[in-house]
Write a structure and sequence with these properties.
The complex is a heterodimer of chains A (about 80) and B (about 300). Chain A has about 80 residues and is of the alpha+beta class. Chain A contains two helices and three strands, in the order E-E-H-E-H. Chain A has a single domain, classed as Ubiquitin-like (UB roll) (Roll), CATH 3.10.20. In chain A, a hairpin with a 7-residue loop joins strand 1 and strand 2. Classes of the chains: A alpha+beta (about 80), B mainly alpha (about 300). The interface between A and B is medium-sized, with 24 and 23 residues.
Chain lengths: ~80, ~300
Amino acid sequence: MSDGDRLWEVFARRKRADHFEHIGCVEAPNSDLGRVYAWQTYDEAKWFEMIVVPRDAFHPVNRPEQPFTLHPSAEALT
Amino acid sequence: MAGFTDDELMRKVQEGFIVESEADMTETYKKALITQLTVQGDTELMSAPAYYMATKDAPSTNTMVSATAIIQDEMGHANIAYRLLEDLGVDRDELLYERPPEKFKNPYGFDQPLVNWAELVTANGLYDRAGITLLGDVLRHTSYGPLKRGLVKVGMEENFHLRHGEVWMKRLCEAGGEARDMVQAAVDWMFPMGVEWFGMPDEKKHHNAQLDFKLKGMTNDQLRQTWLKAVVPLCDELSIEVPAHVDPATEEVELEFEFPVQYDPDTKRWLFDEPITWDQVWARWRARGPMNEQFVDWMRVSRYSVEELLEA
């Protein structure tokens, strides 16, 4: 990852009533590029809605160390 | 790292435990997973320049769009594997931009030039089938949760590549004449390449951390047989000759050449009268194929050019 890049977790849902699903992750220096990379990379479905969230904006509730967001190596990257 | 031993983790994953992060891993598990993800990422990545080379031969704008869409997918798949590696503490920039080309872990098949449309679609038909066979098994069996989730997208897209390959192989074969001959010529060198793709036979491989830790479910020979059972009937249907047949008694595919054999990359010919040992196969793989350096260079060439413009 280049200096200044952040990790952007990608969530999407196929249809209006669906739950959001975590479908992957991209890295980008800002949200505009993060959105473009996410849309281009995860194009396996015709998504009804897609959003990106910076990983460092995740605030774990019941598992402060792991498994999804803030385990040690991820911490070191962001 | 986990508070349990390798043996305990092996037992847990065999019972269905899903590993979610480094905190659940042992060192041995992590090492095997990093190797698996590196092979996966490198294979996806180096398929891109190989396919790109032949895309120049696309017969129309539409076919060029399909071919470049496949390249884009492959880059996306590589991204998924490398992203997972970063979460394991691996430096992606170093992997991509600082590793010597010969250290890339892609199969020997993607060190070879693809020089025309027939070779591209045959690669889609045979090599993407190998990809689906290998990654489909990982998707079904892997004990690593993040990889299992990441492979859902990969599986859907690899199926499109495969369909692209098979439909076009059929189209060229039905046209007959030179078009059919070009598919036959492509299959002649790519079929044994595919057989070799799955690695050492089980009888030569006694210990396998990837199986013990359920990073995959099937052995090399089972995966190879799965691939053969798809590819040999396809070629039969197209009246394309391959040195293998389905044994009607067992329904297993049997090879009609002594495997492994030597390959001459300059003439793209398998030397069927020259059986070799697996040590010799490894030596050939380690020496790398003719396009290894070039393909890595294509991926790297413009790395800093835009950054220099932005900083100017």
